[in-house]
Amino acid sequence: MGAVNGKALIDRLDQLKSEIWFDGEMITGKLSEHPAFKGILKTKASLYDLQLDPSLANELTFISPDTNKPTGLSYLKPKTKEDIVKRRKMMEHWARQTKGMMGRSPDYINSVIMAFASSASFLKGKEKCFPENIQSVYESAMSKDLTFTHTFVTPQVNRSLFNYNTSKEPIAAKVIDHNEQGLVIKGARLLATQGGLTDEVLVFSTPNFFLEEDEAYAFSIPSDTPGLKFICRESFVGGDSTFNHPLSSRFEEMDSLVVFDDVLVPWNRVFYYGNIEASVNFLLKSSFHCFALHQTITRQIVKSEFMLGIAQLLVETIDVGEYQHIHEKISEFIIGLETMKALLEKSEQNSELDEFGTMRPHLPPLQIASNIFPNIYPRFCEIIQIIGASGMVTLPTEKAINSSIGSNINHYLQGSDRTAEERIKIFRLAWDLTMSSFGTRQIQYERYFFGDPIRMSSTLYNTYPKAQYVKNVCEFLDINSEGTC
Amino acid sequence: MGAVNGKALIDRLDQLKSEIWFDGEMITGKLSEHPAFKGILKTKASLYDLQLDPSLANELTFISPDTNKPTGLSYLKPKTKEDIVKRRKMMEHWARQTKGMMGRSPDYINSVIMAFASSASFLKGKEKCFPENIQSVYESAMSKDLTFTHTFVTPQVNRSLFNYNTSKEPIAAKVIDHNEQGLVIKGARLLATQGGLTDEVLVFSTPNFFLEEDEAYAFSIPSDTPGLKFICRESFVGGDSTFNHPLSSRFEEMDSLVVFDDVLVPWNRVFYYGNIEASVNFLLKSSFHCFALHQTITRQIVKSEFMLGIAQLLVETIDVGEYQHIHEKISEFIIGLETMKALLEKSEQNSELDEFGTMRPHLPPLQIASNIFPNIYPRFCEIIQIIGASGMVTLPTEKAINSSIGSNINHYLQGSDRTAEERIKIFRLAWDLTMSSFGTRQIQYERYFFGDPIRMSSTLYNTYPKAQYVKNVCEFLDINSEGTC
Amino acid sequence: MGAVNGKALIDRLDQLKSEIWFDGEMITGKLSEHPAFKGILKTKASLYDLQLDPSLANELTFISPDTNKPTGLSYLKPKTKEDIVKRRKMMEHWARQTKGMMGRSPDYINSVIMAFASSASFLKGKEKCFPENIQSVYESAMSKDLTFTHTFVTPQVNRSLFNYNTSKEPIAAKVIDHNEQGLVIKGARLLATQGGLTDEVLVFSTPNFFLEEDEAYAFSIPSDTPGLKFICRESFVGGDSTFNHPLSSRFEEMDSLVVFDDVLVPWNRVFYYGNIEASVNFLLKSSFHCFALHQTITRQIVKSEFMLGIAQLLVETIDVGEYQHIHEKISEFIIGLETMKALLEKSEQNSELDEFGTMRPHLPPLQIASNIFPNIYPRFCEIIQIIGASGMVTLPTEKAINSSIGSNINHYLQGSDRTAEERIKIFRLAWDLTMSSFGTRQIQYERYFFGDPIRMSSTLYNTYPKAQYVKNVCEFLDINSEGTC
Amino acid sequence: MGAVNGKALIDRLDQLKSEIWFDGEMITGKLSEHPAFKGILKTKASLYDLQLDPSLANELTFISPDTNKPTGLSYLKPKTKEDIVKRRKMMEHWARQTKGMMGRSPDYINSVIMAFASSASFLKGKEKCFPENIQSVYESAMSKDLTFTHTFVTPQVNRSLFNYNTSKEPIAAKVIDHNEQGLVIKGARLLATQGGLTDEVLVFSTPNFFLEEDEAYAFSIPSDTPGLKFICRESFVGGDSTFNHPLSSRFEEMDSLVVFDDVLVPWNRVFYYGNIEASVNFLLKSSFHCFALHQTITRQIVKSEFMLGIAQLLVETIDVGEYQHIHEKISEFIIGLETMKALLEKSEQNSELDEFGTMRPHLPPLQIASNIFPNIYPRFCEIIQIIGASGMVTLPTEKAINSSIGSNINHYLQGSDRTAEERIKIFRLAWDLTMSSFGTRQIQYERYFFGDPIRMSSTLYNTYPKAQYVKNVCEFLDINSEGTC
How far is CA B282 from CA B397, C118, C218, D12, in A? Predict the structure, then answer.
């Protein structure tokens, strides 16, 4: 089959019978008509339409050698640097369509599935590991153009260092049984973004200090698997009006708590289980981080460009471009954006074939970028608030502008060389990006996208090759350099 | 009459026929029943009830020597340091009732009116100045226990340094005529918080570089004066549930654009007009800044205490109190709070009788505090977000907890030694404070409470007595110290 | 005897036969003539002369009830708030004389000795504790106007959390024996500032996680006690010229490693030993921290005033006072200085009689100030560097100005309304304060004055009373508040 | 002739009769034996020896097509990307030899001379412009392997925005006359690093707001041209011992005030004069900034590597590698270093042939890097100070270690797995880098290397292409995008 269009996607998702709970009620009607989901699904559909647009088909799809059909480029296993660049350009297209606001745009997990499949042979012959299932999920996803979410955070009951969960009923989802049909999973995972709005959900554990055998698994199952529940948070859609809520009306993705109520995962869906070593090493040795980061950094760059545009548009709208402190603030955007771009480019330039024959973007520059963005994104938002100043609070609605009081608004809220309507549109966008519930959730999302920033810097410290630099200093000082680092 | 209770206040406000525009419609029903206003008015009423509570009457009211009635303490003209402390304790009571979230709690402008009245004799004999009108507004306000808002920001059309508005139709409100009845005002002002929700609105110009004669005025008029319009922004009330929206359901004050459509200000309401020098100097020489800042810093301290409580409660709820970086973050709250308190206390200790016989809190420490808070408040919010981490996004609603999916929520979202319900209440509060539209508007509000932070530091630089310090250095170096600073 | 003059002090120190090692040689001549020490000793002498200046005697000394002689005010046991203020004013005088640059000005340890003596009764009846010795050291110090240094840091061999020193030869100084004469001490302590330049050295252990019994001691001994060695670091005196090195020529104090080579501490000099509990609790319960901090914060405030003067003098010298970013930078000084002052004042206002009958400055505000200064001091230095810019590098010497090339210097390095000579004096001062070896050592000194800033914030977190704030939040949320904090 | 060795260089410099004033005296003996200069000249000589080392000749020199001799690679006019990389590798070699501490290593101005020569045709036919002189200076420099400094800052008399120098005697160097022989220059320039220690000095004006005709010139003259004086600042050489002062004994370059006392610049040395437009545009259109920045960023990266090595060596020496805050601090080095590297690499990857046929590194990434380094360099120094803590103050000298007190030092100052001698070497290096007069001058030097950081961000703001980003936002909002930016 290969790449599908937006309508096909929506029809398929509307037919899924996932158990989604919203504000205390189980959703029964069409997802695409629900006020909390219709905006994001429409936007998602637009991404699928894009890939069938003849003028873009070449940039968004490739002809699968297996099926001979046009297939989403995020599924392409890259063999050359050109493939890497091709993949990135595809992701830029989608990110521009969503202004970088859709964290779980389908290319994200598609890339993960592709990375898993590319590295599956690592699991060959290992106990309780089924690399062939990864390959078949990949092939099925590619041929049906499926969408996925994934979930990996354990519930935040207790973050103490020496905490060890002792409750009898599992809290973090774990394997509580297995039988002829498959594994039985009970417990919960936090924060499946777009939970219930995708065809499948990919579940795996991230390595941590106290990983237990019954938590060392990975699998992918359809969203409507019996016993699987998605419990939504409050919706951050501000309303239908794209004038009033230009971002949340289109890009609010929803996050949900995922509950596994004795969920049966069929054997042919299990990637591995009960093997701590394989579980930890597969994530380290596979190209997972490379491709997940390659997509994310690409998206974050597009988002940064959008934010720079907004910041500068604010500057021009209220005519503050002559101030030195404004130059400093916009320079922060420029420096952040260009730094991210240089790191992404370096990662691509230095990409290498891995042991599984896949061309990987070079990981370290992406890792650096992923340590930078959680710091600059909140600062970008803060700068936009500071440039906007009191204008960020004066936010009449579309209805008000079109009402009999509209003429007053038009006169008194005009911008420098901008009508009031344009001015309000611009400020509402800045507000929706940085001050609405949608906007602040984006801040939190980017801040923790790859985990706790403090742990990320420990990882960077521990993995970065520092020994040669220390050795050079020892040589300069003419002192012993053995055993450093 | 003197101090009134909450019901009296609400009845009075419901009977005012102010022209308030909300989402394109003019409000016609009772304000106290409107979804956007009922929460804040109920909270405001609770403040008035408090002052009639016998156990607090002594701390919240004084017996006016004129009327011999219990009168709100914010109207007390202080003559001693004890009066200053009494005033502050009254304001603490109200701030605790509102957790420091109500920027325009009535004591704020009451204090300004009191300060104006205390300093009115400054205007005696000056051209186009009517100190007697200030006194009569003060007396009327005190005896009827009125509430006020004020408005002083000019619309943000163009912030260029050398911009000079040349549009024919006025944008910033100005005197366009005067006749036997009074002044005629046309134009707009930005950001009357609680605009239309108070008995009166106090209007005056703040000194700036290009102040024109027709903008050099001050007056107070009832909110339902003909031609006066309040155009609201979107409401940030998240909903009625105090579980879901513990702050916005109670404390969302609304901001509005104030339009003067040929408003006639009767002569007995005019404080001064058409006198640039008096306009500028009255604000500088009167005790306005002292008392406005004394109330604000008091409120901000109470707010900081509330925030420290929330931050520490989060720490305990997810049991992260052992981490050094948590100690650093909570220490930032402690240091900020104690700094604000020390400055307030110094201001009170060093209070002095002014030339008008009023005991004033010493201004410089309050000014320093007002330069500090706009920096620490956004940082406090950021720290709360960082401590809360992923928990800030998992926000089920009251309805969800009470529904059939509630048991799942109760199990999987429990805290360390907290039920899920308690845990969610705590996190929803943290969210409403720092990430809801209500919360981010509070950030912007505190950031700009006393104006652009950059201009505030220029003011501090220009007014702070540096000469003696420079001279001491010159003496140490044995160089000429004349003409420094 | 009581307060002595500078000459008496110098004569006494010149006669001490302390074992001081400088650049590999043991010093044999007069300390007051040694290039590394003559500047600081001359400055120290000027402090003693000051207290005998008739016009200041009243502010710097008090009549001791025991000896009926004028005695240095730093020895006064305060009984009233007025005594606290009197003590502070005395310390301001000395700090102004030294521009806050002398960290071990005699009033510092004098205050510690006084605090120890005031609280000595805490040790009464405790095992291996000799409160009477504290009292006699205090009385002797007061009557002879002695000067002290102290030392408490253990050598920085290994800072790992779980490090436990296992070397056979002690590194940190400990009790290795005791006999009829007294204790025998072997090992080292780090960083006695002015080590060897004072009459006595006070030695005690600060509480830490792994305090051993043989490290739990306190005593004071003369600097020339046999076996006691002071090993100096490199001198940071830039030269004799006060033109070239206005600060280091006067205020460089020297730091030294203190080695105890089987030093015998006579019993009448021992305050306590071998009692971990007493050792820990005496420092916590005595007024030690209150008075040590009261002196330090007073000194740091005077230093901040001096720095603000320098910064502003630079601004005027190159005429950059019109720039907004300069206003922001100078405002940082003002805010920092006024914050420190308000905290000191609050500490004095809230001082209280302790269980031993001593009036103590309130500790928490001083503790907050001691958490603030290590952050603002390096920033003050950085701002001075940034204002000075390229001028900080163009530093001709006194000799150059007075040479035949002087006319060129005079012409080309003139300032705005300043001669080149004045301009160079000003910049050399700014340089000596922030960029000379003397200046950077001051940065490190202030940064670590009360220990590792990270541990200080843990202490603040752990000792600050947060429970009431948490409880208030719980009440607002109507949730259980028992067991918080 | 082509590339020469160190001895040839030193002999040549010793024979120059430049007028250098040091501490009020004119230097008459050999420069290479003067205590203030011998270290840096020895280091400089080592760079020249390196290029004649057979094992490196290929990487450090090229065969000049004109002379057919091995010639310093910094003189190579690059025609391909490979040439750019070759140039960078050469500069890395030299930077590693000097640890990035020599700001005026000869490749810096050599690259500028090459850039000028490559772009000289821009000046062809323009009034008062002599492109042929640039070419002949370049050829002579290349064939004789000359070294240069340059100077461009005007004395800092008054930095007020609207200051206009009105003194009769020129302060900033300007053309006061011209005659048959050439131009006559009078006045001064600030901060020629290595002034008098190079064969020639390149003088040109940087564009600024008030550039006058008589300041619009460029030329290069021998350092011993009559009337040219170099007035040195105080020397920051700490001493000869590389143990005590590992950096300043080798790398202290000296800065000097350059005075032109009616200096005659022969016509064949004049590049242009009296042509403001040419003066401004030549610097903008030539490859000057590209090649100057390419060298500088390369040097700064090598310096950053050295600093990371030192920081990590400190961490290991006192065994603090387990602390999270240490991970964060070392991560700052890693992130800074990798960011600089990615930007440099991007600049090379995107290098392009300019209109003069020269392959140029792409400017924008280098410009970003030059905005980043002035911020991270002082922070790197601060982190090193913070990691080193009290160890940065305990600095015994080489002589002390080798004296009879040495055994005490050896015992008490040992590190974790390091002897005291090694430990002290390491800390003295960290101190010399960040806290000695040499080290703080390096901080100031890097902070202002390309000028005032505030002006640099204004330049970035004004030159960065923002319009497309603004346009994209306008399209998203469906508003007019004409005339933006």
Answer: 51, 54, 62, 75
Q: Is D285 exposed, middle or buried (0-12, 13-18, 19+ CB in 10 A)?
A: middle
In this structure, the strands spanning A359-360 and A352-353 are antiparallel
Which residues make beta-bridge pairs with C151?
A: C203
Distance CA B370, CA B377 (A): 11
A397 inside 8 A of chain B by CB: yes
Q: Are B331 and C99 an interchain contact pair (Cβ–Cβ within 8 Å)?
A: no
Q: Counting Cβ atoms within 10 Å, is residue B55 exposed (0-12), middle (13-18) or buried (19+)? A: exposed
A402 touches chain B (CB under 8 A): yes
Torsion-angle region of residue D99: left (phi > 0), alpha (psi -120 to 50) or beta?
A: left
Collapsed DSSP state (helix, strand, coil) of residue A433: helix
* Residue in A306, A334, A422 nearest the CB of D460: A334
ipTM over 0.85? The verdict is yes
* Residues C69/C70/C72/C76 CA torsion (nearest 10 deg): 70
Longest dimension (CA), chain A: 83
- C248 HSE (CA, 13 A, CB side): 28
Torsion angle, alpha carbons of A213, A218, A222, A228, to 10? 30
- Dist. CA C281–CA C207, nearest whole Å: 9
Interface of D with A in 216-275 (CB under 8 A): 246
Helices A6-15 and A38-52, axial angle in degrees (round to 10):
140
Tens-level pLDDT at each residue, chain D (485 residues): 789 999 999 999 999 999 999 999 999 999 999 999 999 999 999 999 999 999 998 999 999 988 899 999 999 999 999 999 999 999 999 999 999 999 999 999 999 999 999 999 999 999 999 999 999 999 999 999 999 999 877 776 666 655 545 567 889 999 999 999 999 999 999 889 999 999 999 999 887 667 789 999 999 999 999 999 999 999 999 999 999 999 999 999 999 999 999 999 999 999 999 999 999 999 999 999 999 999 999 999 999 999 999 999 999 999 999 999 999 999 999 999 999 999 999 999 999 999 999 999 999 999 999 999 999 999 999 999 999 998 999 889 999 999 999 999 999 998 878 999 999 999 999 999 999 999 999 999 999 998 889 899 999 999 999 999 999 999 999 998 876 55
Ordered domains of chain C (ranges, CATH) = 6-283 (2.40.110.10), 287-451 (1.20.140.10)
CB proximity A309 to D under 8 Å: yes
* Host H or E run for residue D183: strand D182-193
Counted residue by residue, chain D has a size of 485
Give the Cα separation of A22 and A42 in Å (integer).
19
Spatial neighbors of A363 by CB under 8 A, at least 6 apart, are: A289, A290, A293, A347
**Among A326, C326, C386, C328, CA closest to D457:** A326
Contact between B316 and C485 under an 8 Å Cβ cutoff? The reply is yes
Strand pairing partners for D477? none
CB C38 within 8 A of CB C104: no
- Asked if residue B385 belongs to a known ligand binding site, the reply is no
Q: Quick one: which of A99, A455, A135, A128 has its CA closest to A299? A: A99
Which chain B residues are within 8 Å of C341, Cβ to Cβ? 346
From the annotation, which residues of A make up the binding site for FAD? 156-159, 193, 452-455
CA distance A20 to A13: 12
Q: Please check whether residue C324 touches A, CB under 8 A.
A: yes
Instruction: Tell me the one-letter amino acid at C82.
Output: E
Are B52 and B82 contacting, i.e. CB atoms less than 8 angstroms apart? no
CA B410 to centroid of chain Cα atoms? 39
DSSP 8-state secondary structure symbol assigned to residue A154? P
- Alpha-helical runs (H) found in D80-209: 81-97, 107-118, 131-144
Q: How far apart are CA D41 and CA D31, in angstroms?
A: 8
